[in-house]
Structures are given as structure tokens and as C-alpha cells.
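hey m, so remember when u said the C-alpha cells were messed up on ur end? i reran from scratch. heres the input so u can diff it against urs
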Amino acid sequence: MQRFKDLSLSLQLPLLAAGCALLVGLCLLWLAATSSAYLQNEREQLYGESLAQQVSATVREALQRGDLLSARASLQRFVDSSLAGGITIQDVEGMAMGTAGIINAPNLTQYSAPIRIGEDIAGQVLVSVDSSAGQESRWRFLFSLLALAAALSLLVFMATRVFAQRMATSLLALDTQLALPETVDPQFDNEIARLRRSVEVLPLDMLRGHAPVPAAATEFQQATILFVHLASLARYVHTLGESNLHRYTRRLQQIVQAAAQCYRGELIVSRPFGLVVSFSGQPNAGSEALRAASCARLIALITLGLQERTSLSLELAMAVGQCEQSTDEARDIYPQLHLQGAIDDLRDACLSHEYYPAILLADSALTDEQLTSAAVLAEDGKDDALATELLRLSPEQENLLAHQAQMIVERIKPREAAT
């Protein structure tokens, strides 16, 4: 086995293919031998029984007349004109009344048929059929199949050797390219073993690739974020019981989440008592800054509608700004660092405001033309203010927001006086 492994591919592959072809040929040869033997036995049995019945019908009349000479002559004619090696007629006691040819021989198979005269059995006919001709024909057929299997195996060997030599030549050329000048050639006959040896001596540690380079700055895109400061939650976290605090927090989540879903925003928790709704580009949905401002106005209207139905205050301050976002955040952390800084700026703007609900627009958000054309801003803002306050949007937008807020308030209105 080891000697076979050490052979060149130009011999390994042809020998393996030829061996498989020869094995398939031998299996087919065995199947043919089995089937031909069965068919020959069936054919000989059918012939022998038919011949015995034919002889029985021929000699019946002669035996009925008691003419044994005529019966023996008929037997001789059957021996001369058929494959029968010998035929004998026996009476009911087994005594031979007439014989023609040879009855017992190694290649003879006996078949019998009764001789009926009326309703009585007057004896039987024994016919010995010579099977040597059939056996000889069967062996010639099997030897021809064996020769055909050997010829096909040789043909497969020759065809496979051509392709194997081409493959071996390609592998040797590749081995020559990979081999280092100081590498000692161990004179392997097998091309794969030579190629493996050449690869083992290569400095693979130096050839392995390095970590992927972070995405370039040109792959960044502008994203708009809405920071929601939960001012009232900061006061209630130490005064409400655990169950009431959980229901109150759940109510704040319902408000912000419902508004974010209306304008295709993604809600995440970013700071203690602070939520972030991120807006990315959406087809036929308006600019990100306008959607963020609309979401903030919707949150404000929802809190005002729910405030009349709950004893706990819903004080929120919101700020809208823009920052850079990477298309593949898993490979580059810079956009995330920049995002955290933008969130901190929006949070500081919310903390500096004194009344609620309030919506503040950072300078980066005011660069959006759709937002500035629809927004009504406060005119008495301080020069050192961190952001500009948004009073309302266009009348058409405000009507839509009021309708949306009314439906959301009816859906999530408090069911308990404590909330």
C-alpha cells in the first residue's frame, strides 16, 4: 500500500480508475454467469421434457400393437435428429424394452415422460439430453465478456493516464514556483507529496493576511438621532414602588416606541434616563431630520394628551441632531465614538432646558432644508443656547400629528389611576 502511495499521480490515478473499471466488469461478469446458467438449465429442462413427451406419443401406437422393432427404430431416429444422447423405453416394472444411444454419461441429463395407453400407464420414456454444447457456448460467452472487461479497463487506464500526466505536470510546475532556493529536493515520486513538502517549508506566518483595515471615511453616512430625556423618571425612581415604577417606565416606553414606529425610527437605550431614536434614510419618507422632529412633536402631543388622564407627570425634553454613521459598524468603532459625543451634546441641551415638554434642534439638524422650511422656531433664544427650540411644524404637519396623537392616546391610555 505504501508503495502505491509513493507512485506518481500519472500511475496512481490510471491504476485506480482501471481497477474500478475491472471490478465493475467482474461484477457484471458474475451476474451474466449466474443468469446464463439459470437460463440454460431452464431451456434444457424444457427441451428435455418436451422431447420425452414427443417420444412417448410416437412409440405409444407401436407399443399398443406390440411392435417393439418399430418403436426401437423411432428411438434411433430421435437420437440421430435431436440433442438426445440416448433414449430408452421401460415397462411399468422398470425393465428396458428398447434403447437407442447412450443413456448414462457425465454430460447427459435425464428427463422422463409416461407412456399412456388409454387411461393406463404402459411404461415410461427416459431421454438423456447432451448439455456439453450448451456449456461450451456459455463458457465462450463468459470468456468474451471477460476479455471485454479487460479491454475496457485497459482503455480506461490509457485515457486516465493522459489526464493524470497533465495534472502531474501542473502540480510539478506549481511545486517549482513554491520551492525555496535552499530547499533540498527529497526526490518524491508523488507530486502531492512534493507539493506538501514545499508548502511545509514556506514561512506561512509571514504570508498570512493581517486584520482588515477599517472602513474609509468615504463609507460614512449622515444619520439623525432624537435624544429623549426622561426628566420625570429621574424624580420618580427613588419615590415610586417597584411595581408602580415598572408600569410608569412601561408607559414611557409605549409613548416613545409608538411615535418612533410612525416615522420608522429605531429605539435604543443610551443613557440613564435617556432614550435615543435613530433615523436612517428611507425611500419616499421625507428627510431624516424632518422625521425626527415630527417624531418629537408627536411624543410631546401624546404626553400632553395622557397627562390629563394620569396623576403622574410625564415630563420629557427632546433634542434632534445629526452625526456620522458607518455602513459596517462591526469593523470600525470610530462612528460609534462620534455618536456617543453627539448624544452627550444633545443630553446637555436637554438638561439646560427649564420647562417641559421641550423640543430642541441642534445646529447640525438645522442644515436640513425640509426641516427648516416646515419648522417654526423660537425667536427669543439666548445667544449661548446649546440648541434652538422648536415650537411647531407646518399646519398640515400639525394636523396629521394631532390625529396620530389622538389615536395613540386612545390605544395606550392609562387603565389605573396610579399610572
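this time it looks ok to me. The CA atoms of residues 298 and 401 lie 6 Å apart. if urs says something different then somethings off w ur setup not the seq
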